Amino acid sequence: MQALDLSVYCGHSVIMGKRKNDWQDTKTVLLLCSSDREQYRRFVEEGVHLGKRSDLTGGGLIRSSGGWANVLEMKRRKLFQKSDERILGDGDFVRDVPARAEEQMEGEYRMKAKGINLDTAAERVCQVMKTAKREICMPGKERRRVHARSLFCYFAAREVGISQTELCRLLKLSPTAVTFSVKRGEELARREGYSLL
User: Fold this and answer.
1) How many CB atoms lie within 10 A of CB 48?
2) What pLDDT is recorded for position 100?
């Protein structure tokens, strides 16, 4: 019986340069290892030698608490945490995540009710950055263009509610690039006091 090649379901062989997936961003992972595949390989080997780690096993509460022993100790001491298997974090964080998600959704509905859309976001970016709309979608690393694109991504994703997948398609950027753009845009908006309205 022929062995099943599981490497087609794993990004490791792509990062190691043995296979190619056009959609997979290997540069970002390799940047964590100074763009050195050999350093990445050593990092993975060291992880394999550590074996199964109890602090990385189990759902949200188990992992957030540092393993079953800590969960049982908390139970013995009658210390209870809000938990959700989908969310890794302490009780306060787990309680806060759904509230923040609901707040963001309400904000998106308010924007849509006011007729705020991608065009509105682009126009606002052009106004505050003193640039043309075409600059937002143009590739390049010129500082002003990067700032305009980042602010647009932030407004579009966080205020208007456009998915990052849609922004990837629209701006012809990788998912990683859009994620970084949203974060940069958020920092820029906070620092300069820019708002969509």
Assistant:
1) 7
2) 67
